[in-house]
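Quick one: structure tokens for this chain, please?
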Amino acid sequence: MSETSIFETTASNMLSICFTRRHGKQRTLALFMLLIGCATAVFLVLASFSSTERRLTSRILLAGNVLTRTTDLAQQSEERAHKLLPWPVREKRLNAMCKYNNKKNVTHLSTFQKRLLYKQILVNDKYKFLYCFVPKVACSNWKRVIKVIDGYITDDDTHSKMDHHSGLVHLSDLTDKEIQYRLKNYYKFMFVREPLTRLLSAYRNKFGGKFDDFIRKFGKNIVKRYRPGAGPSPAGDDVTFSEYVQYLIDANVAEMDIHWMPMHELCQPCVINYDYVGSFENLDEDVEYALAETGANEVVHFPKRQTYYHPTNPDMVEEAYSKVPEQYVNELIAKYIMDFALFSYPIPKFDYSHSIKSTNKSDFVEGFH
């Protein structure tokens, strides 16, 4: 039997076990443990095979709409929408998943991956911590906090527009020796968010008519590629959510904008041994914990949300994705499967009874977050 045939048989058997329905009083616990087992198996497969076989894995994941058979996980997802498992539990699962990763330290990263990682990590020498920022996960307010600590600004509230470039030290600004010292000795943390919610938040923010540079750089090409009859030079200022989802599915991860690049690609949690991974879903408590661990809570507080701020909530997520063709959502989940697995987010399930071929931009852009 060829190597590919063995791979197909193994993957098919694995998925058959993972997605078989369970019944009885312990169904919820059993399904959740099966989900973690499935994610671990998927990670092992993805980490062990060539790019061709990775594409085959994705096709197997989608074959027969296997993700649609996880109906009982929908209730679990809804129940945990605002509360993840405690960090010690998530940490153990993250470490267990990372054991199957063939990239154990920064020397195993490509030049591009290492350059991106070091650019995402912000340095604070005063309190000796490293923060890897993920766009659409409260990173603007974390940058404000760091600027207040370093004396670049005096107000950590959110009255003024955030300058994402000045007053911040990135790990990439340092020498190799300085980088290695800080990676070894500084407190390291990052924050994550439910993957599909983060992607919708990015859509609302960047294609909500607010950022002309994103419309020019991405909007025109998205509309031209995914909208029949768009013509050779579309305006690109009316990208629908369904078109955006199709673009994400087809995009090369290495060429993605950081606002929708997978979180694990930005911060490499299997390479960097983070002391803490907080969550957007439990933001208030988690930021207080992180600040207390660094000691910075004595000199700065995390900014409160603006009164006009309307974060992307579970109802918006349900409305947006339930109107996208189910096949697209399944393919999108497969694309971001490692974010779900590494950070202990359950696979979501949506009601597709009202699914349409495209979604109206105006339904989801209000609030831009």
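Strands lie at 121-124, 129-132, 187-192, 276-279.
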